[in-house]
Design brief:
alpha/beta, Rossmann fold, 2 domains, 6 strands
């Protein structure tokens, strides 16, 4: 018997928030400041990880520069991302899900300071019953942030769905045996996401909205 959906946990960048392009630009800017080679593809590939892990993956040969590079990245991103916003349809999707009594949460590779800033920027703090940032727990794909959200909400794993655009999101959910939905309009391709056995993969926010509503309605038919 299918378990009812009570909680949907969303990744932020590339899933709800149209920020991937600016993240790549800011990482490239920071790398250039310290004469470190970095391609767009490499910068894009690490979106979803916590910042310390980003530095370790992208700049393994210069650990002494990690703090300075990350500061340069953060300063540039904050300055140039003020116009970034949700993907079209996200606001309507979230409010529709919430109106159906579904609990909403965020699990992100952003820092707490960064997450709080964009929650304020999108005026969406009240939409989410719980949020977890990589700076206050373990980075994806470790499932600790999901376990913490489940503990806060009192929801069982099988009654939750994780939604994300990267392998890190879906691997994190798989590591805790949580149902998961991929989105292909962010960072990783359908082929990459499919390796983590998601319920489905959405190519647009409209498709994601439909998929999530279908999952909710399935529980009502049982």
């Amino acid at each position: 018997m299918k378990k009812p959906v009570a909680l949907i946990i969303f990744d932020w960048d590339g899933t709800l928030f149209d920020s991937v392009g600016q993240i790549v630009k800011s990482l490239r800017f920071a790398a250039d400041q310290f004469h470190q080679p970095l391609t767009d593809e490499a910068a894009k590939s690490i979106i979803g990880l916590g910042l310390p892990e980003v530095a370790q993956v992208l700049f393994p040969s210069v650990p002494e520069l990690h703090e300075a590079i990350l500061k340069s990245y953060g300063d540039h991103y904050v300055e140039h991302s003020k116009e970034d916003k949700w993907f079209d349809g996200v606001d309507e999707m979230l409010r529709d899900l919430k109106s159906q009594g579904i609990l909403l949460a965020v699990a992100t590779g952003k820092s707490r300071r960064g997450l709080d800033r964009v929650l304020k920027q999108t005026q969406s703090t009240d939409l989410f019953v719980a949020t977890r940032a990589a700076s206050e727990t373990k980075s994806k794909p470790d499932p600790l942030m999901l376990a913490e959200i489940l503990e806060v909400t009192g929801i069982d794993t099988e009654n939750a769905i994780m939604v994300g655009d990267t392998s890190y999101d879906l691997e994190m959910a798989r590591n805790i045996d949580m149902p998961r939905v991929g989105v292909s309009y962010g960072v990783h391709t359908v082929d990459v996401l499919a390796q983590y056995q998601p319920i489905d993969i959405a190519n647009t926010v409209a498709q994601l909205h439909t998929i999530l509503n279908q999952q909710i309605q399935l529980k009502e038919a049982v």
